[in-house]
């Protein structure tokens, strides 16, 4: 199968391309890179200038858009006619009017466009849902925060779609939307800003639904944090390293008054799993990207975005 990768930044080099190279059914990888002036093949990967990709209109089984958020929609419009499926890095866009349009509704319902939320493909997600279903939960807290990155990163550019909400905040917000089944109430919302930066540097949201409280935190320029904490009515605590992008050991640590135990989920490359699910058209794994779920997720995301 033939896969096109739009973008060749650090994320593509460290996560996306290595994951694709592990998939047996992928026999051709083409990388569209704006900095490539002359087409060349390196390590069995064909690197091509972006404009040449759009002009050739070569057919692909899957296109991965891994560029900064500002041009996600523009890239999708250019490739949707010659790619069977298009998987877009989060967030899909901040153009909520178009995101909620009938055109995008049709694309989502047809499985033409899919949002990339790799953590929902990791086996730990099923264990988390079981924990929540089988226990009387009172609090769910998630946090994804990272230290400052190099100043040249697009994450510090408003024009390029940077900011902590777009980069880290989408994770706890998407998690909340996956857990919400009916009505919810946003009881608290705070955005971290700094006059020295043109983008937001983090935030916190509290949402009440189904008799439990959800707290989502995110940050750029903060101490590293990457966890999901679940506390039940007996104050038993479940701690999971959750939004982890590396194919590393994932554990659920269970603590109560009497004991502490560790459930090992194992090593899984969630990017590889997500791409395999897309190529095999395992749409059951992409229920989170149905139009109704997109609408629910981005209705919350839009409320937060409007506070920036």
Structure description:
The chain contains 9 helices and 15 strands. The protein is an alpha/beta fold. It has an 8-stranded mixed β-sheet, covered by helices on one side. Strands 3-4-2-1-5-6-7 form a 7-stranded mixed β-sheet, sandwiched between helices. Helix 7 (164-179) packs across helix 9 (291-305). It starts with a strand and ends with a helix. The mean pLDDT is 93.
What does this entry show, briefly?
The chain has helices spanning 10-21, 50-56, 72-79, 96-99, 102-109, 124-134, 164-179, 270-279, 291-305; strands at 2-6, 28-33, 40-42, 45-49, 62-65, 86-89, 113-116, 137-146, 185-192, 202-209, 212-220, 225-232, 237-240, 249-255, 260-267. It is an alpha/beta fold and 308 residues long.
